[in-house]
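DM from R.C. (forwarded with permission)

"hey, sorry to bug you on a friday — could you get me a structure for this? deadline for the figure draft is monday and I only need the backbone to look sensible"
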Amino acid sequence: MKNPIRYLCSMYKTISSTQNSLVKQLVALSEKSRDRKKLGLFLIEGEREIGLALQGGYQLNQLLFCAEIFSGDPALFASEGTEIIKISEEVYQKIAYRTTTEGILAVAETKDLTLDSLHFKNGNPLILVAEAPEKPGNIGALLRTADAANVDAVLIANPRTDLYNPNIIRSSVGCLFTNQVATGTSEEIVAYLTAKDIQIFSATLQDSKPYHNSDFTKPTAIVVGTEATGLTQIWREQSTQNILIPMQGTIDSMNVSVAAGILIFEAKRQRNFQ
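My reply, with the result:
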């Protein structure tokens, strides 16, 4: 009796050379932000991440799998119009970004991340804003926190890296795809929130009151900055209220994703986790 998976594998186009033009393009997509922006494409690696991207409405143009590593049916991870390609282990190792891997990758189309693309499910959104986060690990952790709290949107002000960086996808464990995300300058985001009558709570030490004394039950944006420089002046001046987390130790700051988690879940508590 034929092995059904092996039989299916024989039906797909195969790439075995690392010198193949598509392979070179995929390596560039993994390594260069410029190529991702120019082509409007990016790489996703791993079953969980690809599955979450599909759930998030991302279009997968190509799905690549290595039969020596991946033992499932690649068609289960394909969307309409997805080209499925079998690749050799050598090609896979050339393209793959992670050291521990599952033998499957996808080429997906980027989404519009402008503020105009945002749509809220109700009239009382809870939004997390992060100004100029630099480290992909911090951005990934912020996205995981936002997903855990099921916030209505994550806004990245003055982004320092493109959000389709493979390190961000990896550190967010796919939560880039489960959150509604947009980017813009701090000025653009302040104007957007103001126009939507969304109150702004800026986490900063200047002119602040303890966060637990604030009312987050109305349309709310909670804004966090970097550990090194905090928030820029516009967020301190245009906020509804500056807030702080009372610190009882020696240092006066904590990791940005930890601070965001404390503030966001206080807002969720006030909203009865609705």
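R.C.: lifesaver. Confidence is low (pLDDT under 50) at residues 1-7.
me: no worries. Residues 209 and 243 are 5 Å apart (CA to CA).
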